[in-house]
Design a protein that fits this description.
The protein is an all-beta fold. 0% of the residues lie in helices and 49% in strands. The N terminus is likely disordered.
Length: 370
């Protein structure tokens, strides 16, 4: 079903004619997930984006409830998102993608024997879609059908707890660089779980604790990224505003260093990404002194050193870097816009371009090549 209502999208600070990006090497597609409660958001937005000059144009929207995190399929024919609720409407959506359209295919509940409340992250692994359920404290797995639709919930992973007073909060799942393991960060129990990927079965079998952070310190591991060469992993902690560096080898995470990610004490650190060339690391921070920290990466030992901080709009929960490393787009949820920053190729610093994409409550940005 197609939508008639189109969202408002403008360029802040300067008036620029928007141009389509199709048919050249600079052309990207951009999926944007949003919160839809108490605002005019249409759900999911599909844009053209030119990574050479940061021009963009809206292509289509898809009606969905709180599709706060979304990913495209590897062949770009489909996409999947969460439906981030905790009132019984929580689950996962599937979408059909074309060069200029996006349509909802189906929806499945993330609830099973255990709660699947507040799914906030998705990943596709070996023909299965995994949602990380923050409120439910679980991972949910759905089979992906050949037509891109999702089958009913097939399995849940429920972390083991020492007592009933503990609360798990699964925040994201991600693949190891060797493709042999699925990792998942538990903000509530301060743990990283590891699942071996054996064959085509459900990825959530045989889970174990890969690394346990200090529970008394309670850093709250949230999101993570591996270096391009697969030797290092970086985990950003929401509660402690900390950044931990690991070396990685054969499924094992070995602690290298932990340091303060920023000094704002917002306890709302959110997203983490490496520049395409691996020379710089960026982390987003909310709730106090909102902005993005910038780190230089030592390619030899994986360690990082803070080189700057860039203030942004309110609540920068998620951000994305263009594949050419020229721009960083920051989803400022509470300012209802995505701010576009240029990246200095020499020192990694960020400069606001004056361009913004105005969208109600943007949360997630995903680039892909058409």
């Amino acid at each position: 079903m197609k939508r008639i209502t189109k969202p408002l999208f403008v360029l802040a600070a300067t008036l620029i004619t928007l141009s389509g990006c199709s048919g050249n090497d600079s052309s990207l597609k951009m999926l944007i997930g949003t919160y839809t409660n108490n605002n005019d958001s249409q759900g999911v937005y599909l844009f053209d984006f030119n990574e050479d000059d940061a021009t963009f144009s809206l292509l289509d929207t898809a009606k969905a409830g709180n599709p706060s995190f979304i990913i495209p399929s590897g062949d770009r024919r489909f996409a999947w998102s969460v439906g981030e609720y905790e009132d019984g409407c929580q689950g996962a959506y599937s979408y059909r993608l074309t060069d200029r359209t996006i349509d909802v295919l189906n929806w499945q509940s993330s609830d099973g024997d255990a709660s699947g409340a507040s799914p906030c992250n998705v990943i596709a692994v070996n023909g299965h879609l995994i949602t990380s359920n923050y409120g439910g404290g679980t991972l949910s797995s759905f089979p992906i059908n050949e037509d891109g639709t999702l089958g009913p919930l097939e399995m849940q992973y429920v972390p083991q707890k020492e007592d009933s007073l503990q609360t798990a909060h699964l925040h994201c799942a991600y693949l190891s660089p060797d493709g042999k393991y699925l990792f998942a960060n538990d903000l509530g129990l301060d743990a990283v779980y590891r699942f071996p990927l054996d064959g085509d079965g459900c990825p959530l079998r045989n889970g174990s604790v890969a690394y346990q952070f200090d529970r008394e310190l309670h850093p709250g591991p949230r999101h993570a990224v591996f270096s391009a060469d697969g030797r290092f992993a970086y985990i950003l902690h929401e509660i402690g505003d900390l950044l931990t560096v690991f070396s990685y080898d054969g499924g094992n995470l070995c602690h290298v260093s932990t340091e303060l990610a920023y000094s704002g004490e917002g306890h709302g650190s959110a997203d983490i990404h490496l520049s395409p060339d691996g020379r710089f690391l960026y982390t987003s921070h909310r709730l106090k002194e909102d902005g993005i920290s910038i780190f230089a990466v030592n390619g030899e030992d994986g360690t990082v050193s803070n080189t700057g901080y860039c203030p942004t709009g309110k609540h920068p929960r998620n951000f994305a870097i263009t594949p050419n490393g020229k721009y960083l787009l920051c989803a400022c949820r509470d300012d209802n816009r995505i701010e576009i920053y240029s990246i200095d190729g020499q020192d990694g610093s960020l400069t606001f371009t004056g361009k913004s994409i105005e969208i109600p409550a943007p949360v997630c940005i995903q680039f892909y090549k058409p």
